[in-house]
Q: What sequence folds into this?
């Protein structure tokens, strides 16, 4: 009975370690990095944002050491409302990216689905995902920190709605950019929202910012919302001026975001990008 013949190449010794192959693989990733501006941005982005955000917080607390003691729930409330903004953004952009991950975007538009219907479904999905994410945390804040965020009453609904809409604006804008630049830009889901964190005055008032940044902050609905939250917690007064500024800027920004998405969708059809959803 003949023994099984083992091919020579199976038993051949493995090639020696080669720096040439190492540098060849590195070169491959460097080419990808060079052609993807979102990846380059991300490398320097997170350290820069952390430095700016915590730098402003440190500057504020150095001059207001009794601030937290005066309103114990202000930081917890700020964290919860910030999560509304963050989750609203992801609630729009992540379902859109999941369609691209599954290579399902082109198939969706073979159906009678309209662009406006896609946007509406993403907005409603954002609401559902945000409620699921934030509600348990809001209830846990009471036994853990003795903070009952629902004591804010109707102002809480105003803050929640404004941040939900603004988060949706960011999500729609990011989705349009990913549609244009492909999955290589998917990190914009997180980059975009955290870019606005330092100028949204989440944990400190707007006036702690440099003058030129205050102008930027007051153009954002998020800054007016967090300023309004602090007004309710510290003074027990609902600031109608901040509320109306937030509503007005949200209306303008939502309109612009939807128009931008529709424009990018039209461009994607013209350039055939719906069938080319890679990086």
A:
């Amino acid at each position: 009975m003949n023994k099984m013949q083992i091919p020579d190449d199976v038993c051949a010794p493995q090639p020696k370690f080669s720096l040439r192959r190492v540098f060849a693989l590195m070169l491959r990733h460097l080419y990808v990095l060079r052609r993807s501006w979102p990846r380059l941005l991300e490398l320097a982005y997170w350290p820069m944002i952390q430095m700016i955000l915590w730098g402003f917080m440190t500057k504020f607390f150095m001059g207001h050491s009794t601030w937290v003691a005066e309103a114990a729930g202000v930081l917890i409330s700020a964290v919860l409302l910030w999560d509304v903004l963050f989750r609203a953004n992801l609630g729009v952009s992540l379902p859109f990216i999941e369609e691209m991950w599954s290579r399902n975007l082109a198939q969706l538009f073979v159906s009678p689905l309209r662009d406006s219907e896609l946007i509406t479904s993403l907005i409603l999905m954002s609401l559902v995902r945000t409620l699921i994410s934030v509600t348990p945390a809001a209830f846990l804040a009471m036994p853990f920190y003795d903070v009952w965020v629902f004591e804010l009453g109707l102002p809480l609904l105003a803050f929640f709605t404004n941040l939900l809409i603004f988060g949706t604006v960011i999500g729609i804008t990011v989705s349009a950019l990913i549609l244009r630049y492909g999955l290589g830009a998917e990190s914009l889901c997180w980059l975009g929202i955290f870019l606005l964190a330092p100028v949204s005055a989440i944990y400190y008032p707007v006036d702690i910012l440099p003058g030129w940044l205050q102008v930027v902050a007051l153009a954002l609905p998020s800054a007016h919302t967090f300023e309004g939250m602090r007004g309710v917690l510290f003074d027990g007064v609902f600031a109608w001026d901040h509320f109306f500024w937030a509503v007005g800027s949200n209306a303008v920004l939502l309109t612009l975001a939807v128009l931008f998405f529709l424009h990018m969708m039209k461009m994607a059809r013209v350039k055939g990008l719906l069938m080319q959803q890679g990086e």
User: Anything to note?
Assistant: The chain has one domain: 39-63+72-275.
